[in-house]
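Posting this for the archive.
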Amino acid sequence: MEGEFLQYNDGIITHRLKFHTDSTWSGYVHNRPVPAELLTDVPTTPITQYHYRQISQLIQTLHACPGNTDIDSGTICNNVYKKIRNRTMRCDACAKVRRTLQQAKQRRASGNTDTRVLADSRTPLSVLSPPELKQRAANLSRVIDANNSMISRYKDKIQRISNSQSIKLVHNSDVSKLVQETVSKAPTPQFDSEFKKLFWEQQIKQNNLKCKKTMRWHPMTIRWALTFNSISAAGYDYVRESGAFALPHTNTLQRYVSFKEKSCGVLADNIAVLKSKLQDNVSDVALMHDEIKIKDKLVYNRASGELIGYVELGDINTALQQLESDSGSKKDEKQIATHALCFMARSLVSKNCMPVAQYATNCLTADSLFHMFWEVVAELEMNGINVRCSISDGAATNRKFYQLHHNDFPDDDVTYRCINPFSEIEANQTLFFISDVPHLLKTTRNCVENSHGHNNTRNLMVSYRLQFM
């Protein structure tokens, strides 16, 4: 079959389909050949009438890119592509450079043919000639004037919106007056708890004072304020400075916090308090320890005249460091602490818990932890508190600390227990080492998450074996 089909638009041939004698065919759109990548869905040698209809429909859906001749007559495009939305669409290459051509046309129309003198040009001033520097300065001046005008318009607009929609805030002193008037006129409310009633009475008492500094706060109010300030110091300051509630000053809270002098080592007073709480219960406890990051800086103690912030690892570790310094094997240089190691005892049968020791550390080692741990255990056992187990995370220092007790039970493949030599209830009592469950779950999650993806630092594999009967 040989033939040719033509499609006209305003007297111009837009689509042409020609069939040759060798059963092949060729298509043209605006005298541009159809590329081969657009012919993958139709046969190259039509056989049936359906094939001829399919080829004809394909040619009608093709469109020739008009290029950017409306902007620059020299930009002629020969691309042919499938028409998706309308006939004014352009191919990807022409659409990509169209904006650049439009900007160049605007520069030519404004007379700035040299992009080096534009206000947003990155050309160094050292390479510009005197006329170009003048033109650059003039362009910058125009841009600055335009920006100043725009800023002025926005300021006027914001001012109009503020005058029409804003609400005048009440000053702190006005809030206090409003509270006083409300309290004096309102009847005494009914409260469902004693603390709410106490808090209301404290607010009334503080508002009735002429000199606010003479206020003496109730211990329950001080305790609640200390808890609030420890949770969020910024939130406490905001509520206090807003004037909505009268709260103790932070200096007052600091005096209560600093009433008892704090020091590193075993906290004998805390152990006495814990012992009093455990009198009616079983005295078995779990001893937990963990490190937290602190600010590494020195603080001057006005009461004792000492600098606080150096590493303090207990009496035994301090004596060992002094021995190494005296022997000349190690320089006597005080290190500033970067972490705080805390030991906490928690009852196994009740919710009673108490910090029993604290140390300032820097690069904690297993041998230093060994001496601190048994110093705390000995102090607890001498006060009648029986330590049954030790709970910690899976840090390398803690794992090595476990291995230091391997000689107590040499037959164990994994060191998970040791002998408590300070136990007064039972001779050679066993003390167990337990890993903190939340830390184990977190480590498992991180290993699975970072295997074959994410940070890709692990390579966990699931191995299984099928057994057939």
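The first strand starts at residue 3 and ends at 9. Residues 265-437 form one domain.
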